[in-house]
Specification:
Order of helices and strands: HHHH
Structural class: mainly alpha
Largest sheet: none
Oligomer: single chain
Strand content: under 5%
Radius of gyration: 14 Å
Mean pLDDT: 88
Helix content: 55-70%
Number of strands: 0
Number of helices: 4
Shape: elongated
Length: 65
C-alpha cells in the first residue's frame, strides 16, 4: 500500500503547476516532504497521470523461487 493516494499526489502536483502555491506551502499543508513532491512533479511532466501510479508489485512465493 502506498503512503499517498493518486488523488493526493495529483492534487498537490496540479496546485503547484497551476501556480496556486509553491513547494513550501504545499509540503506544509499536506505533510509531504519536499523530495517526494519534486519527484511527483517531474514524473507527472514526463509521463502524465500514469507517472503518479506506484510501480509496486507483489510477487507470489512460487514465482520468486
Amino acid at each position: 500500500m502506498t503512503k499517498y493516494t493518486i488523488d493526493e499526489k495529483s492534487n498537490a502536483v496540479l496546485e503547484y503547476l497551476k501556480g496556486e502555491k509553491n513547494h513550501k506551502s504545499i509540503t506544509q499543508e499536506r505533510n509531504v516532504g519536499l523530495s517526494p513532491l519534486k519527484s511527483w512533479v517531474a514524473r507527472y511532466l514526463k509521463h502524465g497521470m500514469e507517472g503518479l501510479v506506484s510501480p509496486y508489485t507483489n510477487y507470489t512465493l512460487p514465482f520468486k523461487l
